[in-house]
Amino acid sequence: MHLWNNSKSLSFRKLSSKSLLTMADGSPTSGESAQNRLYIKRGHVVNHDGIQQADIYIEDGTIRYVGSGADFVVPGGCRTIDAAGLMVIPGGIDPHTHFQLEFGGTVSVDDFYQGTKAAVAGGTTTIMDFVIPKKGESLLEAYDEWRCRADTKVVCDYGLHVAITWWSKSVRDEMRILCQERGVNSFKCFMAYKGLFQVNDSELYEI
């Protein structure tokens, strides 16, 4: 969740079982009351179907109430933010990132910590990075490697696309495992990088 005006913004996200509030200028604030409860009042709440002035109650990182506030009793031990004049928007999703990617003899400038920290500062609370296996490399092994890179560093939610950089029966079988057992629901096929990552027409048809 993101509160925004021309001068400052405030991001809300859930990390494990704790809630964290971070000012966009980098200064930390406490997002936890004794009961981990947060009440945002009088904000302009942006949803998929429009904008309305409303109050929001959040407990343990979950939105429990959105409404006028007239019928809601604010629980004790609750931190309150007056969002009058601010827009309250859902956290953004960046569906295309490349953190800690080794390519062409270099490594992308942001690792999973710096990249996701910057994302959260701007109100993006979920990123989708790309697993890019080498030619002949197991998709499952590459996926596990990306998980190891990310799990100890990310400060927001994340998911992984998996690139298909070569084709065989084992790749097909591993795609099925990734979908059914690892929760992967998107794969990338390269139309560029001939001889490196690109798949040909017959392979693309089989995929």
Molecular structure report:
The protein is an alpha/beta fold and 207 residues long. It folds into 2 domains: 2-89, Urease, subunit C, domain 1 (Roll), CATH 2.30.40; 92-206, no CATH class. It contains 4 helices and 15 strands. It has helices at 112-121, 139-151, 169-181, 201-206, and strands at 2-4, 9-15, 18-23, 28-29, 37-47, 50-59, 62-67, 78-82, 87-89, 92-97, 102-103, 106-107, 124-131, 157-164, 187-189. The strands form 3 sheets. Strands 1, 2, 3, 4, 5, 6, 7, 8 and 9 form a 9-stranded mixed β-sheet that branches. Strand 11 (102-103) and strand 12 (106-107) form a beta hairpin. The protein is elongated and about 60 Å long. The chain starts with a strand and ends with a helix. The model is unreliable at 4-34 (pLDDT under 50).
End-to-end separation: 37 Å
Q: Tell me the series of helices and strands, N- to C-terminal.
A: EEEEEEEEEEEEHEHEHEH
Estimated share of beta-strand residues: 35-45%
Query: Helix- and strand-based class?
Result: alpha/beta
Number of helices: 4
Q: Give me the Rg, rounded.
A: 21 Å
Share of residues in helices? 10-25%
How many structurally independent domains?
Answer: 2
